Amino acid sequence: MIRRAVAPELHRLLAEYPVVTVLGPRQAGKTTLVRSEMPDFDYCNLENPELRTLSLEDPKTLLSRFPEPTIIDEIQHAPELLSYIQVIVDEERRNGRFVLTGSHQLGVRQAVGQSLAGRTAVLNLYPFSIAELRDVRQGYSAWDHAFEGFLPRIHDQGQQPSTAYANYYQTYVERDVRQLINLKDVRLFENLVRLLAGRVGQCLNKSSLADDLGTSPRTVGDWLSILEASFLVYRLPPYFEDFGKRMIKSPKYYFVETGLLCYILGIRSPDQVSRDPLVGAIFENLVVGEFLKSQANKGHRPEMYFYRDSNHVEVGLLVPKAGGFDAVEIKSAATYRSNLLTGLNRIASIAPNVLSRTLVYRGDRLTFSNGVQALPFDQVDQMDNADS
Fold first, then answer.
1. Which residues does residue 373 pair with via DSSP β-bridges, in sequence order?
2. How many CB atoms neighbour CB 331 within 10 A?
3. Is pTM beyond 0.90 here?
4. Which of 45, 189, 205, 285 has its CB 3.0 to 4.6 Å from that of 73, i.e. a possible disulfide?
């Protein structure tokens, strides 16, 4: 079994907090992670109808069944339990008492923040990263990774990606979305998802999107929040605070799972990825996802931005660090050319607090005399260790 990169952080937090809450998309491996890392913990799965009913009707009795350190899976089904958990951890005063998992970020975060403030740490678990799959998926191209995606079941059980993501998406729309909102028109919501896929990596205008859908910008905003809250998409904001008024201020959206993105785009093989008109955006989504997972696996709340000015000069990612930020350009090219560094050179000329500049692409690792790094896409996790 592949040990998850976030596991050391999970154990560190268990030693420091009474409760650790693990959030993430469905099928990202939350249950496998916590049960394999804490095999001696009791286990309560709120997907079990009997336990779920008991948690709602008699939470004290349910929790009395679990006097030892306990994993409570899918806590979003019974947020009322959190107040009773607060009482227990305040009385017992011991760390590592509960591990909670949940699939709906917005609702669980709000409930946890209200009931367990100061008592819990929160970890986000995403599907596999390229680094985690390195030993078992050697020789994979960017297009192989993008098409197959990173859901553990696909890699563990050899599922066909297109079929797996079709079922994943159908379950998401019919179950999770309906739990989060009163969805009257499923087709309208699915049209939004398809439009997002077609505009992945582009600056998004809610009003324009609302016009295309025939609905209001407010509805679009609400639905985008739902997509974020259920870990289907990731919102990348622009960075403009230090660069004046001529900066783009619309966010970009990326899919947490490139396999799902490819499915929605109608891509049915890795070779089709390489020939798709959106190949550059799909590659960009792949790399942004790797940075997202890298930060989350270290226990950091992901903080990333992009840069784009009114002259369409752009840098794919700005990653804040103490005293400045790392600038990262993302290009799907397999061969280095000097024009791939246009955005990185521009950002260095206007921002004195650029700590490093890195080009992520499909070519070889290179170091230039001006300190710029060229890094293969499957080595993003090694960026901090790159020679400078």
1. 358, 367
2. 23
3. yes
4. 45
